[in-house]
Amino acid sequence: MELYSDKINKLIEELSALPGIGAKSAARLAFYLINEPEDHVKRLTDTLLDAKQSIHYCKECYTLTDQELCPICASEKRDHSVIMVVETTRDLAAYERTGKFEGVYHVLHGAISPMLGIGPADIKLKELMRRLEGDVNEVIIATNSSLEGETTAMYISKLIKPTGIKCSRIASGVPVGGDLENVDEVTLLRALEGRTEL
Ligand code: ZN
Fold this sequence. Notes:
Layout: H1 6-16, H2 23-35, H3 38-54, E1 56-57, E2 64-65, H4 71-74, E3 79-86, H5 89-98, E4 103-107, H6 125-131, E5 138-141, H7 147-160, E6 166-169, H8 185-193, E7 196-197
Parallel strand pairs: 3-4, 3-5, 5-6
Antiparallel strand pairs: 1-2, 6-7
């Protein structure tokens, strides 16, 4: 006999497909939502749908934003000649939290991984190279220190070499394989300040 009715099972199933949500948490969330007032649930679903429909890539740096240009790219206070290359919008947020980086970013949306069949054309690399045709003095590669992140860093540095633009890599000290967003701000700042030219 099924423990719950079909519609409850369906809700639990959808919720447990979310990252980091196990079967128990999914059930807890499902019953929480069912017991909430209808207008609250409606607000949540509207917010989800609205976010999904209105969030897209910044046309400059490819971070996720609901504007044509994200606030960083649109800011005149930022140094647009220094570009920090990160894997994800969450990594961008991690560096932004330090409050010390004054340049702009480029979000690759992934890293090169021959094992997973992710090649240079599958991440926003062409888009980065296009930006380098403009007025750029330095590219700081801040991909993760995982195998994929290092492979990507090597690949990018080889692409940049012929352009003569200064290219540096953040210092290791960021835990290997660790997501940048889980690294504390002091460690990130140290990694940034201790960057080495490639
Ligand atoms: Zn942007």
